[in-house]
Specification:
Elements: H1 2-37, H2 53-63, H3 74-94, H4 110-131, H5 135-166, H6 171-177, H7 182-185, H8 187-200, H9 212-215, H10 225-250, H11 259-284, H12 290-318
Helix pairs in contact: 1-3, 1-10, 1-11, 2-10, 3-4, 3-10, 4-5, 5-8, 5-12, 8-10, 8-12, 10-11
Protein name: NADH-quinone oxidoreductase subunit H
Family: Belongs to the complex I subunit 1 family.
Subcellular location: Cell membrane; Membrane
Length: 319
């Protein structure tokens, strides 16, 4: 009975985090962009600090008509938003947020699991772009595929460096042996991992697959109402997952003062700071061209990730 209760509590906690944290990131993005770019609209909806902006957006999406193009592959078109969103829910199951029992399911190959499942989420964009019967959507889907192939490799290599250092593929196992001096040692890998994750999420400045000024809105051009909202929710859920993984692999996760009791708080703080960084990058940098995105991956991030692995090997031998 206690085991069943424990599993139920953990599952409920994951669902609550999955439902609330992406919405919190979305609301924060509205406010941060409003402050940084002088956008007064989101600061007045509902009164104090524009608290009703997120509610207004939700009502707007719910009222929109659900339109499916005549020439679309209807079933694939309708399934794409769910396929884009659900993988991030599965990833949250394996991310440790506190020492001890602060993870829903500890996996021996946790790194491979989370990276593989995150890669599946990209298929939602590919399916939406292909099934929409729209040339702009198809072009956005092809850009998504090219971006995935380019940035999956440096992301995996950067994560492999941490696994080599810790001697385990388990996320709780990595945090169990993590030391503070890993911060400067794994810094290059952390930058590569975070940058590659941004590109896989198609967040600015890597938003060429969406590029509203070029291809309308990429793979999501034909989506309306709640289906479009699911794609947006998947983007914000991806920000939470990417920030949490970066915090676990490169920033020590729950490690900090009084980690036994406040480890969950340190994990949330680190995740929140990284999520703010994602928003700040959107406001601060212009979109990269498609050729610049590919050049950055193959001529900068992959060599840096290989350098990080080599450095990890040298440090392991010396230690």
């Amino acid at each position: 009975m206690m085991d069943a209760l424990d599993v139920t509590v953990r599952i409920v906690a994951v669902f609550l985090a999955f439902l609330l944290l992406p919405l919190l990131v979305g609301q924060t993005e509205h406010k941060v962009m409003a402050h940084m770019q002088g956008r007064v609209g989101p600061m007045y909806a509902g009164g104090f600090h524009g608290w009703a902006q997120l509610v207004a957006d939700g009502v707007k999406f719910a009222q929109k008509e659900d339109v499916v193009p005549d020439g679309a592959d209807r079933r694939v078109f309708q399934l794409a938003p769910a396929l884009a969103l659900i993988p991030y829910l599965l990833v949250l199951v394996a991310i440790p947020v506190a020492p001890g029992r602060g993870v829903v399911q500890a996996l021996d190959a946790g790194i491979f699991f989370v990276l593989a499942v995150m890669g599946v989420g990209i298929l939602g964009s590919l399916m939406g772009g292909w099934a929409s019967a729209n040339k702009f959507s198809l072009l956005g889907g092809l850009r998504t595929a090219a971006q995935l192939m380019a940035y999956e490799l440096p992301m995996l290599l950067a994560a492999a460096s941490v696994a080599m250092a810790a001697g385990t593929l388990s996320l709780p196992g990595i945090l169990g042996v993590w030391e503070w001096w890993w911060l400067p040692w794994q810094l290059v890998g952390g930058v590569v991992f975070f940058t590659a994750g941004l590109a896989e999420l198609q967040r600015p400045p890597f938003d060429a697959p969406i590029a509203d000024s070029e291809i309308i809105f990429g793979a999501y051009t034909e989506y309306t109402g709640l289906r479009f909202a699911l794609f947006l929710l998947a983007e914000y859920a991806g920000i939470v997952v990417l920030s949490a993984l970066t915090a676990v692999l490169f920033l020590g996760g729950w490690h900090g003062p009084s980690a036994d009791g406040l480890g969950w708080l340190w994990m949330l703080l680190k995740t929140g700071v990284l999520a703010f960084g994602v928003i700040w990058l959107r406001v601060s940098y212009p979109r990269l061209r498609e050729d610049q995105i590919q050049r950055l991956a193959w001529t900068a991030l992959v060599p840096l990730a290989l350098f990080q692995i080599a450095l990890t090997g040298v440090v392991k031998v010396v230690m």
